[in-house]
Structure formats: structure tokens, C-alpha cells
Amino acid sequence: MKDTIDHIAICTDNIEKSVNWYTENFSCDILYQDESWAMIEFDNVKLALVLPDQHPFHFAILKDNVEDYGEPVKHRDGSVSVYIKDRTGNNIEILRY
Q1: Which of 60, 53, 20 is nearest to 36 (CA)?
Q2: Nearest residue to 79 via CA among 92, 88, 66, 91
Q3: Per-residue pLDDT of the chain (97 residues; tens, 9 = 90+)
Q4: 4-96, superfamily in CATH?
Q5: Which residues contact 17 (CB under 8 A, 6 or more apart)?
Q6: Are the beta carbons of 69 and 84 closer than 8 angstroms?
């Protein structure tokens, strides 16, 4: 069974303006939005818009065994995750809902 990419997080300088731009230019739904980040959903993947000083740019892979990658952190939505880096320094969030 292949792993699933849950979302890709990209950095922006303004969450509200970026959410507006994406929803005006593409067919997607806003799942969550506050001043520090937003999650929008396309048909095949979610896109997180994050502020660079709040969240690292990353992509998230769903895994049941998050603890195998380090000490998980619990998020406000009840999910847990661990951030790791690949061999060239890209940020990967190992995530379980």
C-alpha cells in the first residue's frame, strides 16, 4: 500500500490575501483560516498557506506509526505529527489524525 500525501504547505506573507487569491483563481474550499495559517482543499490534495515565522514549508505524509519518527506533537485539531528532514533538508511532516 502506498503512503498518502495529506497536504503541501507553502509560505506566504499574508494569509488572507493568499486565501483570496487561491479561491478567486481556482475551485477549492477553505477548510480553516486564521491569521497564522489556512488550509484549502482541492479535489486531490490540501494546500496549507503558512507564515514563515509560524510554520515551516513542508509536505505532510499520513502514517499510523508517527512515534517511529520521533516525539509527536499534538495539534489543536487533535492530530499528532513529527517534523523530519529528507537527505537534502526538505521538511516533511509525518502526520496522524
Answers
A1: 53
A2: 66
A3: 999 999 999 999 999 999 999 999 999 999 999 999 999 999 999 999 999 998 889 999 999 999 999 999 998 889 999 999 999 999 999 999 9
A4: 2,3-Dihydroxybiphenyl 1,2-Dioxygenase, domain 1 (3.10.180.10)
A5: none
A6: yes
